[in-house]
Amino acid sequence: MDQNYSTSFTVDQSPEEVFAAITNVRGWWSEEIEGKTNELGEFKYHHQDIHRCTIEITELVPGKKVVWHIADNYFSFVKHKSEWTDTDIVFEITKKDDGKTEVRFTHVGLVPTYECYPVCTDSWGIYISGSLRDLITKGKGQPNQAERIVDKYGIANS
């Protein structure tokens, strides 16, 4: 059984519109991003002293696929601070027969044995099925939800 975290949803927008939204990371995940998120290369994400990561964009296939490699990661709230390091995040975009577009998000390497799994899967659910989907369908996402997640799980800022 595939243990990697995965979720998907379908929208009326075109694969090109979906691709544009995914690569607009500040529009759906966080405005606390350094670097370009729409070309191959590196960008950095951080939320206070709780979560920091360096993400390498390794694949950009317009209208079809986006792949990120987590080159470095730090979590303040788990024993193994680097739990995401060397995992991959894959966005697959598929045009369906009914004209709709399916978005499949998979965090390869984010598995239930990870201490961060409950927080991370909940967070990805909020960001992918909520914020990214809203950015695609309504033109506006809700980035910067980390505060809400931190509060929900009682994660203290060191």
From TrEMBL:
Which residues lie in coiled coils? none
Q: Activator of Hsp90 ATPase homologue 1/2-like C-terminal domain: which residues? A: 14-128
The record's annotation in InterPro entries points to: ASHA1/2-like_C, START-like_dom_sf
Domain of life according to the entry: Bacteria
Q: Which family does it belong to?
A: Belongs to the AHA1 family.
Q: What is this protein called?
A: Activator of HSP90 ATPase
Its source organism is Paenibacillus nasutitermitis
